[in-house]
């Protein structure tokens, strides 16, 4: 791994995992998503990872029109790199998941490096008064759900967005096998360095949030990619800050945001994405490290530039 000159903070603003009942601070409408994304950029996030929600129900939506209600506003208000999901949400087809990115041609999108069980149903263990019927249904359905990204799917995404739109990718690796899948595409020259490798811990179905696993994922990525990659870490729930702190200490980059954790401390809901960005930034700076600006992130990841997107 080429040591990060400065630490890139990615902020994942809303995602498709958490539901409206779980936190009143989760941004749901285009206005809320735009506002929180802009605040996160002002707090120090140089990359904003974005999903869309149905503004009436808060349910994840792939609708490009909904994305276009907040993408231009964020671009006008910040210099941050905009990174659109290709993972979407449970039950979306590949074409639905890609629709917004195909339209918007952003600098970056996420790309999950394999199919996997993606279990959210343990969140049902805590009794709640659900605001919407879809919330417990989605969580329960994850007991019998496989997030699909086959080799053919990944090849299609690389061709459609990478070759077709100049998009670079946040390669999301939820387990060791995903690193080897990425190495396969590197061997075939279907992906080009520098690779932005996001190693993910603590999702049921992926590798567990154990510090030894973080070390193992990094050692494996170092072996497979050498200096051809830039490493970043996210961890779900209460593991968010410990794991991102470990990553920063070890020369990596970090991802925070309400997609990954709703909390800022034990039992304390984060009131905004910016609050989490400020917290990890204060830790990074306390370690005598510097936070990358959006322009520094673009240079580090060889992105095409904010002037070459379609929104």
From TrEMBL:
Superkingdom of origin: Bacteria
Cofactor(s) listed in the protein's UniProt record: Zn(2+)
InterPro entries the UniProt entry points to: Aldolase_TIM (IPR013785), BKACE (IPR008567)
GO terms, molecular function: 3-keto-5-aminohexanoate cleavage activity; metal ion binding
Keyword Heme applies: no
Annotated Gene3D superfamilies: Aldolase class I
Keywords carried by this UniProt record: Metal-binding, Transferase, Zinc
A Pfam family of this chain: BKACE
Keyword hit for Kinase: no
Name of the protein this chain belongs to: Uncharacterized protein (DUF849 family)
Record organism: Stella humosa
